[in-house]
Design a protein that fits this description.
By secondary structure, the chain is α+β, with helices and mostly antiparallel strands. It is built from 18 helices and 35 strands.
């Protein structure tokens, strides 16, 4: 035993024997680790048992035997997906890829993360980053092979590069092909790459560019308007001069500023019903989540990751016009870093992403109006660009939370996470999220807007395969997955309706008659995503909390925020589809994610809490007054009159597919949603 461990044992752990290991190419060997004495005793005490485990080199399972002095990286090869259509090689194309080295002490990193331990970025690099010599060796090899090195992250052990197809083929002994998967066009490799064993690589991400992300927002139909809220329409004159009933009926077809302000259907399908909401404002969100007091004292830095985006000047101008109109504090601490769009950006609705940017920025500001907000727009919605941008945010370590309002595009059979990403591709997401977790940055990801993804297209064919799926990055164990709620709030701030966001749609031809026809199949499913990860086992903090779905797989979501577009949030931005700056009402779990991220950031700052991934603490608070346990199937809905289909009643939490709320954890809202009266103080 080294002297440091003798001292630690004498001072802190008398009578306990330490045998601390770290990986080496030859296998586990006895090596003294220094962290036990260099950290505070609180960390050392909880890590003591962890440092005595045999740690297996990360990435070993991804590699296989090849020619002498080379290794085949099996976890980086061709997708095991029969839906990938391969075409002729395009040798002049460019491949963006990431070379991955194993993290040192990978098992220790995962164990510390499971226990919620946090270290400084410098300590993280000291414990887990590959050596500078290893990184330099990989960088030199990539350049020697004609690759353009675009970024280097020693902390994550990743070197990103771009190279012509011809040089990729030569360097890895593969053949790149044009390929398609559903509506996604890109490239795919024919087999696993082979590299010199001396490089020590565990994987190469990006050899299959057939996985891209989509924003998880949902616009309320017909909500575009030039003023903050539309003027209330006069109640129509009806035979008999019907008066407003005790139930809230007033015969008006206008949207409601707050729950129950208007109700145009005399015959109600649900006991608790209102006209659809016009769209909550920034002050409403602060009330809804009880953040006003904490926001006056704290200003944690908030990070937002997306692709593309509007200019900083336009975002500030449009946001502050909104804040002025709403009587809310101006946004004074906004910065953005937007990468130049690449060839892949054409597949990403670059103009449409400005709406998502507005949702993220303006909801974050609503929750924490004094916070610096840092927006990062990647060069495209494809994994390699977003992963690189995320890694840079984590390495920079300038924010306390990062919200990712996007998820896996699931539009055709074969596009679920397990068949659209290799092990190396998943690692390129997991590494920055694990690093964020261990260095005190909390990341959040939208769970999705298509329910359990078992929906069908207009021809009756399943969009994916008829089975529930959840996508990356939300399904990773190193981030907090955010599901969705429908919330009806009164002017007093009371919330008589807190439901899970899973909508059924009913046609009500005559608002005076209780005659309802389910037209969900025609309208399409709208609801938060949920289910089981196909990539990760159930983490320790979910065990005993997640019931009725699995005891072995990571379950999604963990928590929920406002997401239903019929009870949505108003944003103000340049809508390129109409060519002018508009007020529009949006929902989606891409609204829920930045809301929950900002609420957690305030709670961390208010309670002086050093915390990475927030999910374990949410599960610790499950069943307490800190969270509202959402369990309200089929109890409320909104009347949405005079659409193209006619008068529609939208049922909240009405189980259009397999997802529905339940007591305790459920696959729509996780363990619940923050209680505005108690959450901030309890989150510690």
């Amino acid at each position: 035993m080294c002297a440091a461990h003798v001292e630690c044992q004498r001072n802190h752990f008398p009578g306990r024997v330490f045998r601390c290991l770290e990986p080496s190419p030859a296998g586990p060997v006895t090596v003294c680790l220094k962290e036990t004495c260099s950290m505070k005793r609180t960390l050392a005490a909880s890590a003591a048992a962890l440092t005595c485990a045999a740690l297996v080199p990360a990435g070993t399972a991804l590699a296989g035997p090849a020619k002498p002095n080379t290794v085949t990286l099996n976890g980086s090869g061709r997708l095991a997906n029969s839906h990938v259509k391969m075409g002729a090689a395009a040798t002049s194309g460019t491949v963006d890829l990431t070379l991955q080295l194993p993290l040192r002490n990978q098992a220790l990193a995962q164990q510390m993360a499971q226990r919620g331990q946090v270290v400084s970025p410098a300590r993280y690099a000291q414990l887990f980053a590959p050596s500078q010599a290893q990184v330099d060796r990989v960088t030199s090899w990539a350049r020697a092979k004609g690759f353009q090195v675009t970024s280097i992250s020693r902390s994550s052990g990743q070197v990103s590069a771009a190279a012509p197809v011809s040089k990729v083929n030569s360097a890895f002994g593969v053949k790149m092909h044009r390929a398609t998967l559903g509506t996604t066009r890109g490239m795919a490799v024919d087999k696993a790459p082979t590299v010199p064993a001396s490089l020590g690589l565990s994987g190469v991400a990006g050899l299959n560019s057939l996985h891209r992300m989509q924003t998880m927002n949902a616009k309320q139909t017909g909500s575009a308007r030039s003023t903050l809220r539309p003027k209330a329409a006069k109640a129509p004159i009806r035979a008999g001069g019907l008066r407003k009933l005790a139930s809230g009926y007033d015969g008006s077809t206008a949207c409601a500023d707050y729950w129950g302000d208007h109700l145009g259907a005399k015959a109600q399908k649900f006991a608790n019903e209102s006209n659809y909401l016009c769209g909550y404002g920034p002050g409403d969100l602060a009330t809804m989540y009880g953040t006003s007091a904490a926001a006056k004292k704290n200003a944690p830095s908030l990070g937002l990751l997306l692709w593309g985006g509007d200019t900083t000047a336009n975002v500030i101008k449009n946001t502050n016009q909104y804040m002025k109109d709403a009587g809310y504090p101006a946004m004074t601490k906004y910065t953005s870093t937007i990468s130049k769009g690449n060839a892949q950006m054409a597949d990403c609705d670059p103009l449409g992403s400005t709406g998502e940017q507005a949702i993220d920025v303006q909801s974050s500001h609503a929750i924490s109006p004094n916070s610096p907000i840092q927006y990062v727009g990647a060069a495209s919605c494809y994994d390699n660009d977003l992963q690189s941008a995320l890694q840079k945010m984590v390495d920079a370590h300038k924010v306390t939370t990062i919200s990712m309002s996007f998820g896996t595009l699931a539009d055709t059979p074969g596009t679920n996470p397990d068949t659209s990403l290799t092990a190396a591709d998943k690692a390129a997401w997991d590494r920055p999220m694990l690093q964020a977790h261990l260095t005190g940055i909390s990341t959040f990801a939208s769970s999705g807007d298509n329910g359990d993804t078992s929906g069908k297209d207009s021809k009756g064919k399943f969009l994916v395969d008829g089975k529930p799926h959840v996508g990356y990055p939300a399904s990773s164990t190193w981030t907090t997955a955010v599901g969705g709620t429908s919330i009806g709030m009164l002017t007093t701030g009371a919330q008589p309706v807190v439901s899970g966001w899973e909508n059924n749609y009913f046609l009500q031809s005559d608002p005076n008659k209780a005659q309802f026809t389910n037209i969900t199949a025609k309208v399409g499913v709208g609801g938060a995503g949920g289910g089981l990860s196909e990539s990760w086992a159930m983490p320790s903090w979910q065990k005993g909390k997640v019931n009725g779905i699995s005891s072995t797989r990571r379950a999604v979501p963990d928590v929920a925020g406002l997401s239903d577009p019929y009870t949505g949030y108003t944003v103000h931005f340049l809508d390129h589809s109409v060519g002018s700056v508009q007020y529009e009402t949006y929902g989606g779990t891409s609204l829920g994610s930045p809301i929950i991220a900002a609420v957690v950031a305030l709670a961390k700052a208010n309670n002086k809490l050093t915390l990475g991934d927030a999910a374990p603490l949410f599960y610790k608070l499950a069943g307490t007054s800190a969270l509202i346990d959402v369990n309200s199937r089929g109890k409320a809905g909104v009347y949405f009159p005079e659409t193209k289909l006619g008068n529609i009643v939208v049922g909240f939490d009405d189980k259009p597919q397999s997802l529905v709320t339940a007591k305790g954890w459920d696959n729509v809202t996780g363990v619940g949603t923050p209680n505005p009266k108690t959450f901030i103080a309890a989150f510690k």
